[in-house]
Amino acid sequence: METCKICKKSQNLEKHRIIPGLKYGGEYTKENTIKLCKLCHTELHNYLRSRRFRDNKLSKFEIVIVTEIYLNGFKNLIN
């Protein structure tokens, strides 16, 4: 059974692209997506936006690293 990568719930799952599609060309491939529940997906996007993502100041590499750190529960390390 698939679960949210963050909270481990199995309801309301959505695909999240690690490398975003619009600005960076990330696709919905197995390697570039993770499953998140709707709430965690929204929280992750809000978090990335707060980390300068919206202003195009993060590279693809930085987005992947920030996402990985966020998913592993180390939010406080990069605030």
Describe the structure.
The protein has 79 residues and is of the alpha+beta class. 32% of the residues lie in helices and 13% in strands. It is built from two helices and two strands, in the order E-E-H-H. It has helices at residues 38-50, 60-71; strands at residues 13-17, 33-37. It has a two-stranded antiparallel sheet. The longest helix has 13 residues, at 38-50. The protein is globular, with a radius of gyration of 12 Å. Residues 75-79 have low confidence and may be disordered.
Salient structural properties:
32% helix, two-stranded antiparallel sheet, 2 helices, alpha+beta
What is the fold's blueprint, element by element?
Elements: E1 13-17, E2 33-37, H1 38-50, H2 60-71
Give a short synopsis of this structure.
32% of the residues lie in helices and 13% in strands.
- Strand arrangement within the widest β-sheet reads 1-2
Helix content: 25-40%
End-to-end Cα distance, whole Å, is 33 Å
Mean pLDDT: 78
Strand content: 5-15%
Low-pLDDT segments: 75-79
Number of helical segments with 4 or more residues: 2
Radius of gyration: 12 Å
Give the overall silhouette: globular
Number of strands: 2
Kindly name the structural category. alpha+beta
Q: Which H/E pattern describes the elements?
A: EEHH
Q: Give the biggest beta sheet.
A: 2 strands, antiparallel
